[in-house]
Amino acid sequence: MTTTTIEREIKLPYSSAEEARALVLATGATPMHGRRLQGDALLDTDDEQLRRRRCILRVRTENGKSRLTFKGPVQPSDMKVREEVETVVGDGEVLLRVLEELGLHIWFRYEKFREEFCHEDVIVAVDETPVGVYVEIEGSEQGITHMAEALGKTTSDYVLDSYRGLFLANRERLGLPGADMLFEPARG
Fold first, then answer.
1. What is the secondary structure of 66-111 as a DSSP string?
2. Which residue, 46, 38, 130, is CA-closest to 92?
3. Longest C-alpha distance within the chain, in Å?
4. From the CB of residue 46, how many other CB atoms can be counted at a distance below 10 Å?
5. Are 57 and 69 in contact (CB under 8 A)?
6. Rounded to an integer, what distance in angstroms lies between the CA atom of residue 108 and that of residue 136?
7. pLDDT of 82-98, one tens digit each?
8. 176, 171, 173, 182: which is closest to 129 by C-alpha?
9. What is the model's pTM?
10. pLDDT tens digits for 14-37?
11. DSSP β-ladder status, 56-62 and 122-129
């Protein structure tokens, strides 16, 4: 199944997953998907055609399932807004090999533990990453605003950067090795 949507989202920073989870549940949000590890690989051509167009091609793997996602350029907004085309694929590792044979290469990998909740027309994710804990809210503009307010946040708290951007901004401060945002070999 393939879906094409306009993705609208924000991230909000938190000091711990426990704090974030408790605050999300206090809004009346309902658990949707339990905590699991997501592994993402971003791909591009050698001459960075996608990055130059401010687009992303991602293969995500979690719980033995994989998805291929194309994200278009971010549109000007108080929230991160962009076209998203996504489809489920049978084998993420095989897909990565096919894409590499077609001239694409992985230029960034990142991992996060994600737990998802739903509330009205938004999906709320508690993301534990090597660079911190974030609540990601995705849905309608009004739904995102209401959820952020219910969490005690305002637009000045919104983080619109990607996880790669957050990794680059925090890598030196946290002393993280390498060019990818990965957990140590012993995971969560």
1. EEEEEE-PPBSSSSEEEEEEEEEES-HHHHHHHHHHTTEEEEEEEE
2. 38
3. 48
4. 9
5. yes
6. 20
7. 999 999 999 999 999 99
8. 182
9. 0.92
10. 999 999 999 999 999 999 999 999
11. unpaired
Residue in 103, 123, 114, 2 with CA at minimum distance from that of residue 43: 103
Task: State the DSSP string of 142-168.
Answer: HHHHHHHHHTT--GGG-B---HHHHHH
Amino acid at 64: G
Closest C-alpha to 96, from 60, 72, 70, 71: 60
DSSP for residue 157: G
Rg of the Cα atoms in the chain: 16
Tokens encoding 5: 């949507």
**H/E segment holding residue 173:** helix 163-174
φ, ψ of residue 110 to 5 degrees: the values are -150, 155
27 close to 103: Cβ distance less than 8 angstroms: no
- For 143-177, how does the pLDDT look when each residue is reduced to its tens digit (9 = 90+)? 999 999 999 999 999 999 999 999 999 988 888 88
Per this entry, what is the length of the chain? 188
pLDDT value, residue 11: 99
Q: How far apart are CA 181 and CA 21, in angstroms?
A: 22
Domains located in the chain, CATH noted: 2-174 (2.40.320.10)
Rounded Cα distance, 69 and 85, in Å? 6
Residue 3's pLDDT band (cuts 50, 70, 90): confident
* pLDDT value of residue 51: 96
